[in-house]
From TrEMBL:
SUPFAM superfamilies: Family A G protein-coupled receptor-like (SSF81321). The keyword Transmembrane helix applies. GO terms for molecular function: G protein-coupled receptor activity. It is found in: Membrane. The chain crosses the membrane at residues 6-31, 43-68, 163-186, 215-238, 250-268. Its main location: membrane. InterPro entries: GPCR_Rhodpsn, GPCR_Rhodpsn_7TM. The keyword Transmembrane helix applies. Coiled coil: none annotated. Residues 23-264 form the G-protein coupled receptors family 1 profile domain. This is G-protein coupled receptors family 1 profile domain-containing protein.
Length: 304
């Protein structure tokens, strides 16, 4: 088995793991929807849904790479640019969902009326979806998501530096700047208003600030993993011959690695989902103990 095939199998395994974790995340929220019917949990599920669809798309990409690797001269199918478009859209969806999580905490601490009504909460999420699935449409419509010369995968044309920089700035840089601004504003607000609130209010604000700090750290995790990917893409733009053949699948594996740990951390820091997970675990333990009870009684009667 050659090295590209091994990387492709690892890529499929990581994508399957991310899909399973995201599906379990959403299934837990649906199972305990009576407890999880609130906006913070809905925003966490928004991130999980983005990871679920992103992982499903990566599974399709990996399967087609396995098929095309068997041919010396492979030709892409008509859906290859569409899979590339869906890849870039869902990547932006994952990153921008962190902005909504931080904005929700910001409005709660500053008591902003922006997200008071249910209509405004739904509208802001729908606006995020519309933006994430339209910002990269120009690259798709103009045919700038072709098959790469170095791998059996479609991607934004690396020869079009304007598209590469534009999509990287919207997907990654926008999230980093927005989260930094929100966090700095909240720290300044809590520092200035600490003398105006009682101890209970200060504790609540510090708790919400801690949640925003964790959101920033989760996004930083994705950013750190994305640095090698960005460096290799820049090398590709400069000189394609510097990089080995079929290297893009290695970048995809690296970019997909943090999603499962990220969802686990996000679940644990969402109170309602964490309580639902604990209750589900206790029920499973109870079911297991009740199944063992007849076996124990039989063994006791036999010894008597």
């Amino acid at each position: 088995m050659d090295f590209p095939t091994i990387i492709n199998r690892i890529y499929l395994f990581v994508s399957s793991l991310n899909f399973t974790v995201a599906f379990g995340f959403l299934a837990l929220a649906a199972l305990y929807r009576h407890r999880c019917f609130n906006f913070p949990t809905f925003l966490a599920c928004n991130t999980a849904l983005a990871v679920l669809l992103n992982s499903a798309n990566h599974l399709a990409i990996g399967v087609f790479m396995l098929i095309w690797d068997q041919y010396e001269y492979s030709t892409v199918d008509s859906l290859c640019p569409l899979r590339a478009y869906f890849h870039h859209s869902t990547i932006a969806w994952i990153h921008h969902s962190f902005i909504l999580l931080a904005v929700d905490r910001y409005c709660k601490i500053r008591q902003v009326t922006l997200l008071k009504s249910h209509i405004s909460k739904i509208c802001i999420v729908i606006c995020q979806w519309i933006f994430d699935f339209t910002f990269d449409l120009p690259a798709l419509v103009t045919g700038n998501m072709p098959k790469l010369a170095t791998d059996n995968i479609c991607f934004v044309a690396l020869t079009r530096l304007d598209f590469v920089l534009y999509m990287a700035a919207v997907s990654f840089l926008l999230t980093d700047i927005s989260l930094s601004i929100i966090y700095r504003l909240l720290v300044r607000h809590i520092r200035d208003a600490s003398s105006k609130f009682n101890s209970n209010q200060q504790v609540r604000m510090q708790r919400d600030l801690t949640v925003v700090r964790r959101i920033v750290l989760l996004n930083s995790q994705l950013f750190v993993v994305g640095i090698p990917v960005l460096v290799l893409i820049i090398l590709t733009i400069i000189r394609v011959d510097l990089l080995p053949h079929k290297f893009m699948r290695t970048l995809l594996v690296m970019s997909n690695l943090p999603y499962s740990p990220m969802l686990v951390i996000l679940l644990l820091q969402t109170p309602d989902l964490r309580q639902s997970l604990i209750e589900c675990r206790n029920k499973l333990k109870l079911c297991r103990s009740t199944r063992l009870m007849p076996v124990q009684s039989i063994s006791l009667s036999a010894t008597a």
